[in-house]
Amino acid sequence: MKNTDGTSRRQQFKAYFYRAGWLALDCWRHFKLRIILIVILSWLGITSATAIFGGLIFYIRSLESNSTPNLFGIEWQLNSPSLLTLFTLGMMLLGILSAVLLYWVDWLIAHLAIAYQKHASYRLFRIASDPRYFGWQRLVDGPPTDAMQLFFSTTRGTSIALRRMMGGILPGITFIVATVFLVKTSPGLTALLIPLILVYFIPLYQSNQWATQKQMAYSQIGRKARKGVAQALDLAVGTSLPPERKLEEARQSIEAPEYTEASVLFFARKLVNSRIQMVNGIFFVCCLVGLFTFFAIATFKGTRRWSDLLIYLFALRSAFVGLRQITTVFGKLSRLLPIYRQYVDFAIQAERYCQQRRRSPRLNQPLPQVLWIHASEQVFPDTLDTLKLHPGDQVWAIVTSEPDFSMLQAIAARLEEVIPDEADLISKSAFLTEAVLEPHPDGLNLPLQVIERQWQDPEVQPLREYFQQKERLQELFPDPHSDGAHSDGRLLSLETCFLLNVWSVAQACQILWIDVRILFKLDSDFVTAFLSAQPTRYVFLVTDDPAKALKRGTLKQSRQTLAGVLVFGNQGLAAGGDVEWLKTHVKLVQAYLEQQQEEAKMLFAALEDEEMDDDDDE
Question: Is 80 exceeded by the pLDDT of residue 54?
Fold first, then answer.
C-alpha cells in the first residue's frame, strides 16, 4: 500500500511539473521578448537595490577605517559635506530607479497575463472552428459546447497561474544576487548552510504535495456534497412536501459525511501558505541561531566584527525572502493546478489529435461499402451488439443535449471509435443545423446551377415530383428576366431555402448529419422527398427528444425505413437497436438522457467552482 501511495505521489509530482512546464514553454514560444524584458528589468531593479546596500557598506567601512578611497584616480574625502550630499543623492536616485523598475516589472507581468489569456481564448476558438481540429469533441465528456465554455472560463485561472509563475522571476533573481553576495562575504559559512537548505526542501516538497492532494480530494468529494444539497434544495423549493420532510432532507444533506469532509477540505487546502510560512520560519530561525553562534565565536577570537554579522544577516534575509517567495509561487501553482490543468490538458490533447489526424492515412481513403457499428456498452436491455449500415440507410442518433453543429461533430467523432474499419467519417460529412433555413441571397447562384445540372438525374426524381405537385418550380427556377425570388431570400419558402443551401454541400459528402428540428419546420412531403433523394449517402437524423421524434408525422416515412437507432451518452455510444426497440424502451432512454445531463451538469459545476475559488489567490 505504501509503494502504491508513493508511486501515486510521484506521478502527481511529475504531472504537476509537466503541466507547469508546458504552460511556461507555451508562454515563452509566443511572448519571449516580453519575458526577456521582464528578466532584464528585474535584474536592473534588484541590482539597483543591491547597489544601495553595497554603497552603504563601502561608505561606512571607509569612515570606520579613516581611509580615503581612490576611484578613477581621484581621492574622495568621504567626511566632506559635499561628498556626503552627493552620496545621499546617488543612493536616493538608485532607490527611485529600483522602485520604478520593479513596478514596471509588475505592470509587464500583469499585461503578459492578459495577453496570454487572449492567446488561450483564441486557441480555443481555433480548435472549435478550424477544420484541422474537427472531431475535437471526442476529447471531452458531456455536451461539447458546455465543455468548451468551461475551457474558456479556465483561461482566467490559467492566466493567474502564469502571472504567479512570472512573479517568481523577481524573487529568483533576488535569491541569486543575495546568494552570490553571501558566497563573496563568507564562502565557508555559506557552504555550511547548503545541507540545511537541502533538508529545508523536504518539508517544502511535502507541503506542495499536500496542497495538490487536498485540492484533488476536494474536487471529488465536493461534487457529491453539492449534488446532495442540490437535491434537497429541489425538494424544498419545487415540491409541496410537508415542511418537516423538507427540513429533514436538508439536515441529512448538510450533515452528510461528504458535506462535512468537503467543507474541511475547502479550508484545509488554503493552509498551504501557512504551512510553507511555518517551514520558512523554522528554517530562518535555525539559520539565525547558527550564524549568531558562528560570528560570536569568531568575534571573540578577533577574526570577525559584529558588523560582519549584520551584513551577512541582511544578505541572508534577502536570500531567504527570495526563497520564501519562490516557495509561495510553488504553493500557489499547486492550488491553481486543478484549474489550469483543464486548459493545459485539453490544449495538449487537441494539438496531438490535430497532428495525428493530419498524418492519418485514412483521411484519403474512401468509406467502406458497409459500416459495421459495434455497441460494446450494455446500458439498456435487448440492445443490438452490431449494426450494419449501407449507403442510403437512415439512422436515428439520440443525444443528451441540443444537436447543434458541435454536437453533430461529436457524434461523428464518437462513432469513429466504434467502427472497426477505422473509417474517417468527419471529413466526409456534412453537418446540417438550423442555419440552413436562413436565406443567403448572395450565395444562391452556385447551388442553383448545381441543381439545374442534376435536376434530371434519377436520384433527384422524388424532389422533382414534389416541386411539380406543389407547383413550386417557378420558385426554384425563377424567370431570369423578372425580379426573381432569389434576389430577395425573404420570398423563398423554407423548403426552397433548405434545398438551395444544402444541395451543393450534400453532393460533396457521403454522410449527412441532420438536426431533426430542421425537419420539423419543413413540409413532411418535402422531408420524405429529400431523404429519398439520398440513395448513395448515409443519413443520420439527430435528436435529443426521442419521444417527440416517434410522434411527429414529419418522420413517419423515416420510421418505416429506419435502419437503426443509436443512443449516445457523455462518454460515447451507449446502445443500439431498431425503431421497435426504441418504442419499447423510450421512457428508459429518456431517463438515461436526463441522468447523463445531470452528471454533466454536476461535473461542469464542480470545475466552475474551482475556477471561482481562485479569486482569493490574488
Answer: no
